[in-house]
Specification:
416 residues, alpha+beta, 4-stranded mixed beta sheet, two-stranded antiparallel ribbon, 7% strand, globular
Length: 416
C-alpha cells in the first residue's frame, strides 16, 4: 500500500480578540479593586503610565460611612439597614457554644435582642443590666464573649468601639490608630496635621492608618441584608438630591491616572486612560438606568424592588445583554439602605409587578416580626406573601428561606 502526500487549500474563520479588546472586556467586568490591580500591572509595564491614590474629600471620606459620622452612637444605628432575621439567626446559632451557663445565656439573649441591624448594640449596657437585675460587670463579661462572633465588630457600643474590635481582630491596633479612633471627628474632617500632633507620628503614618480604617466595616450587621454586598469599597454612590436620586462614581475607589508623553509607552498609556473612561461611562449609564427603574426601592428598601431583566435594560440603552452582564458583575452601589450589588437588583416578575427579590425581603420581614413562641410555617408564609397578588407556593418559600439562611419554623421556636 502506497501513501501519497496531497496538498489542498481550505478556508476557515476564527475570532481572535485583539490586546485592546481583551483589556476592554477585562476592565468592563472588573470591580474597583480588580481594576486597580490591573492598572497597577499595566503601570509596572508602561513607564508613561502613573497611578496616584485619591483620598476622599473631607466630610464624605467613604460612602458607606454616611449616616455614621460625625455623630456616632447607638441612636444613629437604628436607621442604617432594614431589619431581617438572618443576622439574628447567625447570632443565635453562635450563642450556645460561647455562653453555656444558663444565667449567662439569659444575658446573651438580652444582648441579642438589643442588637441593631447595623450590628451595634441599640441600648446601653447599664439599661440591659437594670432590666435583668444583674450588675453591668456581669453583662460586660458576656458581651466580651459575644465579641468573638464573626464578622468582627458585632455587639459594639458605638462606631469607635466597632472599629477598635476590628483592629484588634486584625492585630493592627497600635497607639497611633488608638488615638485616631478616639478622634474620629478629626479623621472625618481630614485634619491630618492635628492628628499628627496628637499621635506624635508623621503625617505619612497617619495616612497609613487612615487607609486601614477605610478597610473596616462601620456596619458589620448590614452585610446580612438580602441584596447587600460584602465588605468592600463601593463603585457608585446614590444620594437624594433636589431633583431626585443622583448616581455618581465613587472616585476614591480608583486611582487617578496620568500620562507622561515623553516616556516610553505613551500611546499605550493613553489607550489605558481611554479604556478606563469608557468603562466608567458605561458603568454609570447602566447604574443610572437600573436605579431609575428601582426608585421605589431606594425610597422604601429592598422589599419594594420591581421586576427587571438584563435583556429589557440592554434594549433600553441600546447595548448588548452581555455588556450589561459584564458591567454589573462585580459592581456595588452605596445607598441609604446599605451597599447593594447591582446584579441583585435584577429579578424576575412573580406576578402583580412583584420582583422575586422583593418577596425575599418581605419574607425576611415577616419572620423578623413573628412571635418566636409560635413561628410561622412555610405554608402560612406563602399565604401571607400571596395576599398582594403574587402567587407563591410553599416550596418556593422554603427555597427563599434557605437562600436567606433562615432555619425552618421548628428550629426558630423558643420556649416562653
Amino acid at each position: 500500500m502506497k501513501v501519497r502526500a496531497k496538498m489542498g487549500v481550505s478556508q476557515t474563520q476564527r475570532l481572535q480578540l485583539s490586546t485592546g479588546l481583551h483589556a476592554a472586556l477585562r476592565m468592563l467586568r472588573a470591580d474597583a479593586a480588580g481594576l486597580t490591580h490591573f492598572l497597577e500591572e499595566q503601570a509596572a509595564e508602561t513607564p508613561a503610565l502613573s497611578l496616584h491614590p485619591v483620598l476622599p474629600a473631607a466630610g464624605d471620606w467613604l460612602p458607606r460611612w454616611s449616616g455614621v459620622l460625625p455623630h456616632s452612637g447607638p441612636d444613629e444605628a437604628a436607621s442604617l439597614a432594614a431589619h431581617g432575621p438572618s443576622l439574628i439567626a447567625h447570632v443565635m446559632s453562635a450563642i450556645p457554644g460561647l455562653v453555656p451557663a444558663p444565667r449567662d445565656r439569659t444575658i446573651a439573649l438580652a444582648l441579642a435582642d438589643a442588637l441593631e441591624p447595623s450590628g451595634w448594640l441599640g441600648r446601653p449596657v447599664a439599661d440591659i443590666a437594670a432590666d435583668l437585675g444583674v450588675s453591668p460587670d456581669a453583662v460586660d463579661r458576656v458581651l466580651i464573649r459575644l465579641h468573638q462572633i464573626d464578622p468582627p465588630g458585632l455587639f459594639a457600643r458605638n462606631l469607635a468601639d466597632c472599629l477598635r474590635l476590628q483592629a484588634i481582630d486584625a492585630e493592627a491596633l497600635d497607639p497611633v490608630l488608638s488615638v485616631m479612633l478616639d478622634r474620629l471627628d478629626l479623621v472625618a474632617s481630614g485634619d491630618w496635621a492635628a492628628l499628627a500632633r496628637l499621635t506624635g507620628a508623621p503625617e505619612a503614618e497617619v495616612h497609613n492608618r487612615f487607609r486601614l480604617i477605610r478597610s473596616f466595616n462601620p456596619k458589620p450587621g448590614a452585610s446580612f441584608a438580602t441584596i447587600a454586598s460584602p465588605l468592600r469599597e463601593p463603585d457608585l454612590i446614590v444620594r437624594q438630591g433636589e431633583g431626585g436620586w443622583l448616581v455618581t462614581l465613587n472616585h476614591s475607589s480608583l486611582p487617578a491616572l496620568s500620562v507622561d508623553p515623553a516616556a516610553a509607552g505613551a500611546a499605550r498609556a493613553r489607550d489605558m486612560v481611554r479604556l478606563v473612561e469608557s468603562r466608567n461611562t458605561t458603568l454609570l449609564a447602566v447604574a443610572q438606568a437600573i436605579l431609575s427603574h428601582q426608585r421605589t426601592a431606594l425610597d422604601q428598601g429592598p422589599a419594594a424592588l420591581r421586576p427587571l431583566t438584563m435583556q429589557t435594560l440592554a434594549q433600553s440603552l441600546g447595548l448588548h445583554k452581555s455588556t450589561v452582564s459584564r458591567v454589573v458583575a462585580g459592581a456595588a452601589v452605596d445607598t441609604p439602605h446599605g451597599t447593594w450589588w447591582l446584579r441583585r437588583m435584577f429579578s424576575p416578575d412573580m406576578g402583580a409587578d412583584t420582583a422575586a427579590a422583593a418577596l425575599r425581603a418581605r419574607l425576611a420581614r415577616l419572620i423578623a416580626d413573628e412571635e418566636t413562641t409560635q413561628p410561622l410555617s412555610d405554608e402560612a408564609l406563602a399565604q401571607a406573601l400571596s395576599e398582594d397578588g403574587a402567587a407563591l407556593a410553599r416550596r418556593t418559600v422554603a427555597k427563599y428561606r434557605a437562600e436567606l439562611r433562615i432555619p425552618a419554623a421548628h428550629r426558630r421556636r423558643h420556649k416562653p
